[in-house]
Each structure stands twice: as structure tokens, then as C-alpha cells.
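ok here's Tetratricopeptide repeat protein 39B:
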Amino acid sequence: MDAPRVQSGGRGKHAPECAPRPGVAGSAGPQPSSLTSSWLSTQPRNRVGCQFFAWFLGGSSRRRNMALVGSRVELEADEDIFEDALETISMAKESMYHALGYSTIVVLQAVMTFEQQDIQKGISAMKDALQTCQKYRKKCTVVESFSSLLSRGSLEQLSEEEMHAEICYAECLLQKAALTFVQDENMINFIKGGLKIRTSYQIYKECLSILHVMQKNKLEQEFFYEFEGGVKLGTGAFNLMLSLLPARIIRLLEFIGFSGNRELGLLQLREGASGRSMRSPLCCLTILAFHTYISLILGTGEVNVVEAESLLAPFLQQFPNGSLMLFYHARIELLKGNIEEAQEIFRKCISVQEEWKQFHHLCYWELMWIYVFQQNWMQAYYYSDLLCKESKWSKATYVFLKAAILSMLPEEDVVATNENVVTLFRQVDGLKQRIAGKSLPTEKFAVRKARRYSPSLPAPVKLILPALEMMYVWNGFSIVSKRKDLSENLLVTVEMAEAALQNETFSDYSVDDECLVKLLKGCCLKNLQRPLQAELCFNHVVESEKLLKYDHYLVPFTLFELAFLYKSQGEIDKAIKVLETARNNYKDYSLESRLHFRIQAALHLWKKPSSD
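and the structure:
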């Protein structure tokens, strides 16, 4: 069913607007100057939020246009909107919205670079922002008060400025919690981060209740739509993200006061996106991230491209050379199967900005996978090598991928690169990192697979189709399913590996390798609408369960694929039963959490009619 189109309330066919709607006569709260002093002005040029989004979404148009046309004419000094935004630190000491805007930019830098010093700067900026917001909060805050704020009388105890302070405080608290998790891996920081998230969640819940009372009693204030936008963004994002979690985690979180509803979360974000608040772009970007990334990696791979395109269109119109807009445009084209078009847009995305090299790395990652889909191994190697050299997000994953891609090349081509595949695989274990006291699941997976090249073994045991295995892990077969030609080419490669295995001497890894090949072959056959042959491949893996020695993840993941095969043939009850078997009967295998996310997403869709 087609997705509902976002209401045109504040945007319609036109570009997103920054100016708030006019206040309502007789509205409650202080005079406009109260929030104007916090730089939430009715003049767009004075609002840090819009200045920030103008840079983040579109950036410096003259510099970008020069990059696109290749002009040799030297341009006059062009103001750097990003630097201007950072220079608002003096205002951030007195203005809650400048504090929020400035600290958000610093946190984005920390997330992009993953440098410890940038993470520390982000935490420090958030501490300052929280202090600024605290100055405007009521002494007895929304969450700390045991009295209900839902009556008309108690609602009036909060001024308009104090209500905005609660929203800004909750946003800052949530961002600080995220940085706390990656700052250090000790348990105290983990607990601190969890408590901050819970406090932020409670503030959003109370603010949503206040918003409902305001709407019921028509207490629209001068900056009501900004408050509404903050509430929609926070509660919508919380509902959406919590709904993605596996069932057992949701039950635990509900016990301590959390709850998540996917349809409600998407509805709140859509309402926020259709408004005119400075948070409207963030609501749009959150939905876009859900449709173009989260649904693929942690979901079923069934993406709502129609809504994603509808949301992106006005931003792409206003910011045609904005790197973020181009990136989402490329992702949407990729998910539609227009791989060559996506390739060109990702390259354009790289060319239009130089401020954040880390954004280039996102494009390198995407281009690497596109070349893997096309089995252009030398080009895939080129981008994996760039990631190894430039990006610090996950060195272990990048090095493993580079080695895996080189493994797909003929030996003479590998020699030409001056790389040593065995040496690369042996580097993986020493590059893994820990976040919030935990190793990254994809890094743990890479480390386990790379053990076949350990120097402690008599000789390296070559991995079978390692690049295609990683492609499967990242749900790449869902993208390739849109392209029959690529699926057929992949099937040829898999069948060649299958034939080669039959000629090899039996070893401890033989059954594992055979089952991996059967899983990959089944995925190719499923994409090519050959269900009977695909089912035979999947059943072979399931029946080999007790013979597997290392790659125990293969059976539950194969059951997941088998469930989708049954669902495509209309056998929903049978598909649900297989999913529940995969969820309940297996544990302690590689990438278990990722599969549980996907199972949760599938059960959510299949057990009740879609609201979309």
C-alpha cells in the first residue's frame, strides 16, 4: 500500500520555512521578548536553528557550484556558515537555543571524527548547554514534581519560556547520554548514560501531556509551534527507536517505564515534519534515516521509498547541492535498484563539500558496496583502502573488508596492489574497539572469521566468498533483489565456489563453508524468483545444524530467509512459526542482536495489518 503523503501544513510544494507561525491573541505565558532573548526570534535570520540547518543541509552554495562546474575562476572569500555557527558560543551562555544549536554542532563533529578529544569537547559543550537551559527551567521541574501538570491551573505555573527550557534540556541530555556511552567503557558511565536517557524520556512524556492540554484548551502561545516541534521530534524518535528493539529488551524497558509504538512514532514525526518549526528538518531527517538505513540494516529490508522521496523532494529543491540531501537522494536511488544513478550522486556528494571529510567516508562506504554488488573488485578495493586510511569509525571492519575484497581477486591482481591478504586478516584482531564496555558486533564477527588466518595455525585456511558473506550481513541482497542482472551474476560466482568446494580435501571448515555457500545461493535464487530451488538450499543448511563447528549463526539466519520465502508464497502462519523458532531456539551466535532486530521488525509487520 502506498504511504500517506506528509501534510503540506508548513511546506507543501515549497521549501521548508524557518519563521514560526504568528502567535494567538490572548495566549498564555510571557511576552514574546522572553523567548526572543533566547534568540527564538520571528526573524529567520536571527535564529541559530535555521542558520545551522542552512549550512548542514545546503552549505556554501558558491563553493559547491564551483566544485560542480569545475570553474577555474577564483571566488572571493566566501563566508563559512559552519564557522559562523560555531562562533555563536558567546550567545550560548545566555540563550538556550544558541546553547542547543552550538552544542549539537560540536556533538556532530565528535560523532563524525570519533576522536577522543572531540568526544570530550562534545561532552563539555553539552554540560555548558545544560547549565544554560537550567537557568530558564522552573525550580521544581516537570519530571521532579510529584504533582500533576495536567490541570489548567498547574499548567499556568510554567511560563512559555520554562516549557521551551524543558524541551531544550531534554534534547541536550539525550545527546550527552549518547556521548557518555562512547567516552569510556566503565560501568559507571554506562549507568550514568542510562539514567540521562530515562530522565530525557520522562521530560518528553510530560511535555507531550502538556501539549495535549494546550491543544485541548487552545492555549496557543507566541512560539507554540516551536514547542510542538520539539515535542513531536523527541517523542516520535523515542517511540520509533524503542519499537525497533527485540521483544525481550522491550519487556525489560517497559518494566522501568519505557514504551515504544512504531506507528505512533512515525505519525508524530510526520506531524513534526509538516510543521514550520526549526525542528521540522530534523523530523524529516529522522524519518529518512529510518526508511533508507534503519529499515534495511535492522529491519526486513522492505523500505517505504514513496514516503522517503516525498519527504526529500522539497529539501532537494531548496538545497540541490546540499551534501546531506544528495546523500539521501543517492540512498533512495540505490534502494530502488538504480545503482548506476546512485553511483553518480554519491560522487557528486563527495565533490560538493570539503568541510567534513568524515561525510566523504559515508560515501566511500556506499560506493564500496555498490562495486561489490557489481563485482568490480578493484574499484571496491579502492574505496575500502580509502576507508582504512582515512576513517576511524571501525578500523577492524574496514581492514577485514579490504582483505575480503582482495580475496575475490585473482592472485596476480592482488600482487599488483602490493597488499598481503594474510597480513591484513591478521591485523583485524588488534584493531577492534569497545564502546560502552562492549565490542562492536560486526567487529567481533570480523575477528572470528579472521582467525582462520591466525599465525598459530599450521597454515591459513582460506575463507570462502568473504566479501559476499559481508554483503549478506549488511543486507545487501535486499538491494540487489531489484536487479535481475546482478543477481544472476552473483549466482554464477556462488556456483563456481560451490563447484570448487567439491574438489577440496575435507577439513574442519568444510561443512561451514558448504552451508555458507548454500545460504548465499539460496538468497540469489530467492531474488530470481526460483523458490523451490532456494528452499532446497536453505533446508540443507538447517539440516546440517549439528555438523557446524564455527559458523553457528548460519542456521538462525537461514531460518530468517526461509520465513521470508514462505511469506512471499502466502504462507504467513508458517513464516511466523519459522521466525519464532529462529528467535527462541538459538542463542550465543554471531550477530545475534542484529537478527533479533530483524525478526522483531518482521513479526511487527506480519502479525497485524500495516498502518501504512
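+1. The domain at 470-612 is CATH 1.25.40.10 (Serine Threonine Protein Phosphatase 5, Tetratricopeptide repeat).
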